[in-house]
Amino acid sequence: MSKSLVRRLLWPTKLIALWLVAWVMSAALEPHLGRWGALALVTIALAVASLTEKRPWRRLALVLGFAVACLVSFMGGALNAVTWLGLLAIGLLVYPVRAWQDAPLFPTPADCLLPMTGAFPGQAGWRVLDAGSGLGDGLIALRRAYPTAQIEGIEMSWVLRFLCRLRCPWARLRPGDMWRLDWSSYALVYLFQRPESMPKAIGKAREQMRPGALLVSYQFAVPSLAATWSGQNAAGKWLYVYQI
Ligand SMILES: C[S@@+](CC[C@H](N)C(=O)[O-])C[C@H]1O[C@@H](n2cnc3c(N)ncnc32)[C@H](O)[C@@H]1O
Asked: Span 114-243: which CATH code?
């Protein structure tokens, strides 16, 4: 099994293992504390276990995922196994396993790229790419900042791509893996992924992008590399620009 596959499977395996432990604990506690008491205690235990995860969305998934599953099961089997499998299938369509190494769906605020336009005004016809374009919020932010650019996106999930096409009919969208796409013809590649994606992204940008081209990351910096430009938006979140 390749190292990257192991890395990708680590988080979901840990999540499922902790949920299983939580189920066993809750079954053992229920005769003594009642189901609500057991749920409360196990949720607290999961909240403590969730502190081993740095990312807030993972902590939420761990604690809320279990609590929601319990609440649904308390509804007396109103949701049967087929419905659960249906929900799982929808989840996998929105966030396919191959994308687990990078970020799930979090949208870029529409104005977040405007502050960089003073330093990098752009040019008409610039090709710009949102790598992992999700529902299109990054494309919308790119369009707001660079209205004369040619705006493109690549996204793995076909459900997100379908919805994104409805929202951003002016953008060129392609299916696929952003790491397999050649970035050499882009003047700007925008990313809103994960901290772990950044070393790989700068490596790819340096290898493929032309001198002067821009790698732009919302919220996550490249470790141990000073950004060419950085700025904070109104919500206090950082934008990092690396000029190749
Ligand atoms: C945090 S969201 C950002 C969405 C959009 N760029 C925005 O800023 O609103 C990350 C997106 O990247 C997609 N993604 C993750 N890994 C990918 C990959 N290797 N290739 C293409 N898309 C990927 C996910 O499916 C998700 O939609």
From this structure: 3.40.50.150
